[in-house]
Amino acid sequence: MLTIALRTLRTRWSTFSGTFVALSLGVALLAVMGLTLASSLDAPQRQPERFATAPVVVQGQNTLSVPTSIGADVSRETRKLAHPRAVPEATVAKLKKLGTVIADRSFPVRIEGGPRGLIGHPWSTAAFAPYEITAGRAPRAPGEVVTADWARPGQRLHTRHGTVTIVGTVSSLGFENPVFYTDARAAELSPKSTQLVVEADATDVRQAAKGESVHVLTGNARHLADPDPDRDQEALTAMNALFGTAGGVTAFVSVFVVASTFAFAVAQRRREFGLLRTAGATPGQIRRTVCAEALLVGVLASATGCVVGAYGAPRLADWAVDVGLAPDWFTIGDSKWPYHMAFWTGLLVALLGVIAASWRAGRTGTAQALREASVDARAMTRGRLLCGAGLLLTAAVTLALSLVTDPGELLHRKTYVSRPMVLITAVALLAPALVRPLTRLIAWLPAQLPGAGGMLVRENAAAGVRRTAALAAPVLVTVALTGSLLGATATLNEAKATETRERTTADFVVVPAGNTGPTGSKDPAENTGFDAQTLQQLRTIPGTTASAISSSAVYVLEDGVALIRSEARAAEPAPLAATADLPLAAGKVSDLDDGSIIVNEEWERHTVGQTVDIWLGDGTRKSLRIAAVMTTGTGDNGVYVTPANAPGAHVDRVDVTIVAGADPAAVADELRRASGHVLTRDQWVRASHPGTDRNTRYGFLLVLGIALLYTGISLANTMVMAASDRVRDLAVLRLAGATRRQVLRLVGAEALTVVAVGGVLGLLVTAINLGGMRGALGLLSVHGPMRIPWPELATVTGACAVLAVVFSVAPAAWAMRRRAVELAGTGE
């Protein structure tokens, strides 16, 4: 059998070339993803940046640690606080006895004409990075600052806190854009200091701070005092999710393509297998021959893929760094396990792809295949029908269970990425049963046109069910993934925009100068708040009701095992009720007070009147009564508290409603004079429209790029394989009077028909997936439209059409280079 398999590969190399390329590409991608993931797991520890030369850094309480229990095991859950506490004054007094104590302050700065993301600090902390003056001098007066080399000494620039003069510059160290004030001026602009530097022995500092709610940082731990110390870990986690998803899709699509290719190859070789059976070969020998062919292709393709993966992984790492998906230091390590994983997965994919085909080959009768006609009379086998129906039933049952038990699960990315694969596989397995009626429906109108071209396209595509199904399958995958993934994010974003539109009843929304959309960004420069004077001006404008809203968080321990953080908005109840329409399922906004909270239905306890134990954004524990309950929505409803239960939160948004009789234009002018960026309700809704984040966007582009690449490989391989079987058919058309151009036009039209069949099946999968998501949103009380990404679907379908036409017409043109009489006579 091995000898026969080797000779088959040598003589039928064109049949297996597409499978070899597809499998090599899949193994290469798996190796690249594995090497990337392995390198991210071995990430080096980040060194201190802002406090590289500081002896000791002392931080106030910035985490919440709560004991949890699972059975007899007791552990602690820890979360970062939304509003870290300052170092207690008593502790500061003790530390001052040990040595010099320098308070660190970090606050956002906006300078007209300056770069975004400027962060203010006291000048005394510059030496700990260290920053060194490159031009000018240090600041000495309240209106003097030192900044990076984007400015020059002597410039006078405007900020929201007044005009400043650049008196010096420092070299940028890459991790922030600093603006240094005098220590006194920094203390005025940011009275709260959550961390400080102590120039004393670390052991003495730890002893003095013993028993206090502070963190003493020395050595590499000082990087925890740097801006956004978790950014590397967050970037690596997001990158792992992106490449893990891409690796999963690669494995899925490669199995899909390999299985489709082997199935079509076996269907083409049924006469060959019939001859072997006539010569005495047993069904088991036939199966072993087909499996041996797959094994040989798998070994060669997997080895090639590992070599290509070793070359491609560093390029992918460089790309991830260039686009900001990975930290600057990220490189590929020397791990070996990704190669083993990719190689053996490639072999497994090859064997999985050939199992069904080998079973079908072994069932070939001794004389049945030799007299079988070219028309596919029985393309749908019982096993394929049962598997397809089983997967379709599984998809339907799991969708129904999710809708009944937990509709919100359908809105999670891992769900709407994985669910389409089950449905795609089910529809692909059932495709032979769907192809013939769908082909006749699509080609019905062309068949009614004068001439025989439309009729021939319809009959050829409908008669060659196996060929049509094999060609439509990769188109189905590409169209379905494009529609399901991009449509899911668009539908979810539109639902969130609908929630914002329905919730916002204010006539104007005022945000701090420079902000034009919702707050909540991790960039401190995007989360500036209003000062007390501006707030007072906004609240006293005649003819208006103003609701000042700040961002915070609360923490709740659910089931005694999970410490959950919920985003919180703080506002006074009466103005809130006048400027917003919260999606309440029970209770009233007016019942909110300093001893209560508004929660949503996702909370373990969500009955009006119940009491919940929570921790506020600064770690303070409180028991609050539930005043009202909101619907779950898309999961972003969060909770509402009063400002008294949001210590440390800054007002970052003011909703303004005009009372009856007031002039909207006059109110808008007063709001602009009070400072801030004034948006109408419609402008705010547009500015708040969520977009797809960068990691998700790159992830989907990578996934869809892989799918489209595999589509091209599969179409090329299947078209080339099919061309040899159609030589005599094309010759007969030439002998019947068709010109070479007419025959090629017919072949191209057949390819377009097949693409249309795959596109319709892909669109069907898309509609089912998005319909399930739309049903989940309806159950969660969100009334947003279902968004089908028509431009993207048209693009990928057009790309598939171009590939199909090129790879069908080119082999046909090559086959017709000889005279029609010779081709018809030889059957080549």
Word description of this protein:
Helices cover 52% and strands 17% of the residues. The model is unreliable at 519-526 (pLDDT under 50). The protein contains 23 helices and 23 strands. Helix 2 (13-41) runs antiparallel to helix 6 (231-268) and helix 2 (13-41) packs antiparallel against helix 9. A hairpin with a 2-residue loop joins strand 9 (156-159) and strand 10. The strands form 4 sheets. Strands 14, 15, 16, 17, 18, 19, 20, 21, 22 and 23 form a 10-stranded mixed β-sheet that branches. Strands 5, 6, 7, 8, 9, 10 and 11 form a 7-stranded mixed β-sheet that branches. A 4-stranded antiparallel β-sheet has the order 4-12-1-13, with helices on one face. It is of the alpha+beta class and 828 residues long.
The rough form would be described as: elongated
Largest sheet: 10 strands, mixed
Radius of gyration (Å) = 34 Å
| Oligomer category | single chain
Please mark out the parts with pLDDT under 50 across 5 or more consecutive residues, or reply none.
Answer: 519-526
Number of strands: 23
Structural class: alpha+beta
Percentage of residues in helical conformation: 40-55%
Helix count from the secondary structure assignment: 23
Distance between the termini: 27 Å
Strand percentage = 15-25%
Name the average pLDDT. Answer: 81
Short description:
Strand 19 and strand 20 (621-630) form a beta hairpin. The protein is 52% helix and 17% strand.
